[in-house]
Amino acid sequence: MGMRVAILAMLVVGTLWAAAAAGPATGPGQGLRVTPVVEAYRKAGPAVVNISTERLVATGRRLFGDGDDPFEEFMERLFGRTVPAISLGSGFLIHPEGYIITNTHVVQRAQKITATLADKSTYEAVVVAANSTDDLAVLKIKDPAGRRFAFLRLGQSDDLMIGETAIAIGNPLGYQNTCTTGVISALNRKLEFRGGVVYDGLIQTDAPINPGSSGGPLLNIAGELIGINTAIRADAQGIGFATPVGRLAADIPKLLDFERMNRVVFGLSVRQLHAKAGEELLVEAVAAGSPAAEAGCKAGDRLLALDGKALSQLPEFQVAMLKVAAGANVRLGLLRGGKRVDVVVRLKPRPKPDGGALSEGLLGLQLRTVTPDLAGQLQLPVEAGLLVTEVVPGGPADRLGIRRRDIVIQLGRFYVADLDEIGAVLEDVRPGDSLRIDIIRGRTRAWATITARQPPAAPAKEKLRI
Questions:
Q1: Sign of CA dihedral 403, 409, 414, 420
Q2: What is the β-pairing status of strands 240-244 and 264-265?
Q3: What is the DSSP annotation of 167-228?
Q4: Given this model, what pLDDT does residue 196 score?
Q5: How far apart are CA 55 and CA 1, in angstroms?
Q6: Which one, out of 105, 151, 361, 400, has a CA that is 20 to 30 A from the CA of 142?
Q7: Which of 136, 134, 133 is nearest to 107 (CA)?
């Protein structure tokens, strides 16, 4: 009898210990309460970020009078007179060094961006790049002490099933790290907005997505990232939309384009695959005559490691390459035909394009870098960007209505602060290509689509005296 009591006591103690180890919840039925949704939230929650921005928003009043300037009318229609305001959104970390994914519309008019993590720590964030077409942006935060951040790995969105559980985490109306659940209601949805903005290939879900949740992660029941919460239908309940994570994976090489940012030539195009054994990085193409081609890299190779560190996700590769300068060697571990091959690639410098000449030739703009001193001297509204000093008559910018003293702050998917940066954007642009241009005029920020071309020769207007 005593032995049976002792055994029973040991079983009870063991059961209590196992329950305590399962999670913070206590009491009867704890094992039933820690559902897969709870586990998914615990897994992903620390990587979710609250994003607050100081930005310019519209009051709906006319700003520039009754002129017939088409760009002026365009800005009035979008924003009208603007005043500073605070807005909230969401995001999530994809790399331990502080790279954050959010929606472009969360930060596109921001003057200051603050990222608040799940542990309430706050950091100032800067925009690395933005893609308005897919409504995706990359931000960067940095910890002075070198903290490594919790992050989400890229999941899979090409095998989603209608009816499977969907979990959204975000900051609706500023309520940090809110978790909502539902199902995937439909796939490949298309949304059209005023101004010709179209998002397609979206995931539709009935997991509640409210204002402030934009940019947060959409997860499956395993806590894996499957999408980025993007939009809601204001005229309906239970209809939200998310950008598939596969779209993000396709955009990351452009958003974190280390060759353009670091002015290097490397030559590999890499994409992420989902294999039975896990995530893989595949060499999709090798540029002819590039350092990678000279080192012996081949399309179809599987990229295993960089400088001895194993790789399986695109953010790992792209961020690692952001640290490599021209003239440096990188050692790549490749899998080819079932055998490992190690190659050494020496990066070449990528010549800087003439940003001034390209801006004038393709856009019809003469530009000057805005500095704090120049901003104070001319009483400009911002201390960074490119000041329009001349508009070529008949050129693309002239026809759009851009004028002297406007400040260009974004071109294409990149924010531009000097002539080197705008040159890096324009070096691959050809006459006839269209790209987004963002400008600030006074207290108003607006965007339009500008079509690049070689403008006809014309007499120059009087230049802005600075």
A1: positive
A2: unpaired
A3: EEEE-GGG-TTEEEEEEEEEEEEEEE-TTS-EEEEEEEE-S---TT-TT-EEE-TTS-EEEE
A4: 62
A5: 75
A6: 105
A7: 136
Q: Which residues are catalytic?
A: 105, 135, 214
User: What are the backbone dihedrals phi and psi of residue 288, each rounded to the nearest 5 degrees, phi first?
Assistant: -60, 135
Q: pLDDT tens digits for 103-141?
A: 988 887 677 899 999 999 999 999 888 887 788 999 999
Q: How confident is the model at residue 5 (pLDDT cuts 50, 70, 90)?
A: very low
Question: Lowest-confidence range among 78-82, 151-155, 419-423, 461-465?
Answer: 78-82
Taking CA atoms, 358 is separated from 55, 301, 395, 408, 426, in Å, by 30, 37, 13, 14, 6
As given in the structure block, the two tokens for residue 424 are 């890096």
Residues 424-446: pLDDT tens digits? 889 888 888 888 888 888 877 77
Which amino acid is it at 310?
A
Residue type for 52, please? S
The predicted structure's pLDDT at residue 68: 41
Q: How far apart are CA 178 and CA 247, in angstroms?
A: 24
The Cα-based distances of 446 to 109, 248, 399, 436 in angstroms read 8, 25, 16, 10
CA dist 314 and 288 (Å) reads 22
For residues 386 and 393, what is the distance between their CA atoms, to the nearest angstrom?
Answer: 19
Q: How many CA atoms lie within 13 A of 242 on its CB side?
A: 37
Evaluate whether 98 touches 122 at the Cβ level (below 8 Å): no
pLDDT value at residue 208: 83
Hunting for tokens 């897919």 — which residue is that? Answer: 134
pLDDT band at residue 463 under the 50/70/90 scheme = low
Three-class SS of residue 343?
strand
Q: Please, what are the domains in the chain?
A: 44-140 (2.40.10.10), 165-248 (2.40.10.10), 264-349 (2.30.42.10), 355-451 (2.30.42.10)
pLDDT, one tens digit per residue, over 234-278 is 555 668 889 999 999 999 999 999 998 889 999 999 999 887 777
Give pairs for 328-333: CB < 8 Å, separation 24+.
Answer: 330/306, 331/305, 331/306, 331/307, 332/295, 332/297, 332/303, 332/305, 332/306, 333/303, 333/304, 333/305, 333/306, 333/308
